[in-house]
Sequence to fold (433 residues):
Amino acid sequence: MKKNKKKIVYVGLSADILHEGHINILKTANKYGKVVVGLLTDKAIASYKNIPTLTYKQREVVLKNIKLVKKVIPQHTLDYRPNLKIIKPNFVVHGDDWKTGVQKKTRTQVIKTLKLWKGKLIEPKYTKNISSSSIKSELINKFTPTSRVSFLKRILENKKIIRVLESHSPLSGLIVENMKIRKNKNIEQFDAMWSSSLTDSSIKGKPDNQALDFSSRFNGLGDLLDVTTKPLIFDADNGGRLEHLPFTIRTLERLGVSAVMIEDKVGLKKNSLFKDQSDAKQDTINDFCKKIDLIKKTRSSKDFLIGARIESFILGKGLQDSLKRAKAYSEAGADLILIHSKEKTPKEIFSFSKIFKKTKWYKPLVSVPSTYSKTKESELIKNGFKIVIYANHMLRAAYPAMQNVGLTILKNQRSFELEKKISSVKEVINLIK
Ligand code: SPV
Ligand code: MG
Fold:
């Protein structure tokens, strides 16, 4: 076919890892006319799969320097239509793999839209055995801690809310890593892991009072980070002694942790969800700000985020105290504010966010809806929250399941009654590929 220089050919790409398959598409497109690449923005990609490894700017530079490409423009949604309506290309080129799967609907929309100006869809055969996702899974072994540290910050900039699930073991981390469902038009998944002091302590059979020291927790963390790629927020209780804090931060960063969460309590640690908080003490604003400031000075990357957790509601100190602290912590350099509550409804945290989100000290808000679990993520978003942490649910699910195993064997004096309720040995053997 003779190339018509006046014809415009549109190709939508994520191009996180540019491979042979992309080049095949671009070569075909180039035969039909001038190639305009609609490069999916980080936000558009995050709406249906993991945030890309390379930023938009980095991906744009690569594509702009490919001779098959005439122009690169941002595509802000998975939906091609807004860009197609502006550019009115004569052709759209896409691999035939989108005839099924997540992008099937997008394809139908593209065909309909192209008809408006007699444009055509060209679908070269999908290049077998190659995709960015498969290359990425191979790359997991080469994944560097430094790249993981920045991921949370990048997702924060590109998602309405970051969904975080507690991971107390590498196996639970793999569930966070791989679980995906399709709901309505979207792909739903977890964005990050929470390393909880409560569940880390519980699996070691210890109370959540710092009896389990950081060194032991870091060992477990290393195993978890070895087999996953999603970012992790570390629950560091009150951060420990000021003098030790720089070492803790260096280790966390070196391991590839994306954020540390410290709470403004002092003295023997007690879990915040305990009803009786009478012997729990809150830190002074001044001393807690010193910790934030020290972390700020110690961290080697600004992408390693500092989370300040306010315990005023837990300790019955009320709204004004929590607002005063939020302002001070934000000024001291906190990147995230976790406003904790053990009420059955989100009323008190929403009363806080309503005021705080309008102030100049606003920082992305974190919610831990353990007690107000009826609250939907959409309500949290509406009320100014950017991160939701499901802080203990994996352990709470595992414990009764294991108890039931013990009980059933004791009652029946054999294991047969369990067979239908537990994974088969074959499933376990095949669990880790
Ligand atoms: C944890 O998960 O250990 C937390 C959250 O710190 S809470 O249990 O609510 O205190
Ligand atoms: Mg904790």
Summary: The mean pLDDT is 92.
